[in-house]
Amino acid sequence: MLEGKVVIVTGSGGGIGRDMALAMAQQGAKVVVNDIGTSTTGEGHDDGPAQKVVNEIKAAGGDAVANTDTVSDANAAAKIVQCALDSFGKLDGIVNNAGILRDRFFHKMSVDEWDAVIKVHLYGSFYVARAAANHFKEQESGAMVHMTSTSGLIGNLGQANYSAAKLGIVALSKSIALDMAKFNVRSNCISPFAWSRMIGSIPTDTPEQQARVDKLKQMTPNKIAPLAVYLLSEQAQDVNAQVFAVRNNEIFLMSQPRPLRSVHQGEGWTPEDIASHAMPALKSSFVPMERSGEVFSWDPI
After folding, report:
1. Which of 54, 87, 134, 296 is deepest in the core (most CB within 10 A)?
2. Under a CB-based contact definition with an 8 Å cutoff, are residues 93 and 7 in contact?
3. With the C-alpha atoms ordered 226, 170, 37, 100, is the resulting torsion angle positive or negative?
């Protein structure tokens, strides 16, 4: 489905990114395997993971090149795109997958922990997409896939930085889709449920936490790859500005914010009127204060 295409997958030295890179190569794409080789907290540097995935792709008869530039710097992100152009002469699709975690309850979260996660996820997605945008505009084709999370779409404990970044990515993707549709450029999101190195940092201090992690371990990264392949293919030409979730063998189309209910008062509202009339009328439609695990409460199927 990707024969003749050139794609970039950021953060593809392991986990979900690795499986997406391998699947895209198997489907005929030439792949830029980007990974700076850090821990889940963004520390350390090693150029090994990206090259190992490239070696896997080449051993299977595919074509790929390793790139170790960081997505969290605009100039470095531009080099990732340039790597595709220099290596393969074109670029058809990107997957913004690179990420780190620095989980902390909000009242304990440091500015550095906030900045680091926002920089890699939200800024990183913008930097890579922005670097590719002019190229896609000129050739009047291109597809982007951005990885979001139910931590942002629904909510989770101890992840204010990650949740804010991941919901921001949804809005970024929607804006890209709206702005670039006239150039035949598409932008969609995937919210993955999969055991990965990042999820491996989730605490397992209580039986409940351990049970949650045990469920996640059933959902392997290779379940995400087929949807990413499809979204970058020509067969997805009419799929734009959508948010999908993949949970083991299930694919979900996720809702996007729309009005639920309204109240009107011809002479306008006072604070007292809101308290006595507006809120009681709206309250039955309030969105519950749920976490991701409470919404997706059933075992993976």
Report:
1. 54
2. yes
3. negative
Q: Report yes or no: 35 and 60 within 8 Å, Cβ to Cβ.
A: no
At residue 103, φ and ψ (nearest 5 deg) are -70, 140
Strand 250-253 vs strand 243-247: parallel, antiparallel, or unpaired? antiparallel
* Residues 152, 165 contacting (CB under 8 angstroms): yes
| Residues 173, 126: Cα–Cα separation, whole Å | 9
d(CA 161, CA 164): 5
Nearest-5° Cα angle at 68, 133 to 236: 40
Buried b vs exposed e over 231-241: b needs ≥16 C-beta within 10 Å? bbbeebeeebb
- Residue 138 gets the label, from left (phi > 0), alpha (psi -120 to 50) or beta, of alpha
What's the CA gap between 133 and 296, in Å, rounded?
35
Active site amino acids: 162
The one-digit pLDDT tens for each residue of the chain (301 residues) are 999 999 999 999 999 999 999 999 999 999 999 999 865 555 544 448 999 999 999 999 999 999 999 999 999 999 999 999 999 999 999 999 999 999 999 999 999 999 999 999 999 999 999 999 999 999 999 999 999 999 999 999 999 999 999 999 999 999 999 999 999 999 999 999 876 555 555 667 888 777 767 766 777 889 999 999 999 999 999 999 999 999 989 999 999 999 999 999 999 999 999 999 999 999 999 999 999 989 988 878 7
CA distances (Å), origin 94, targets 130, 183, 186, 249: 11, 16, 11, 24
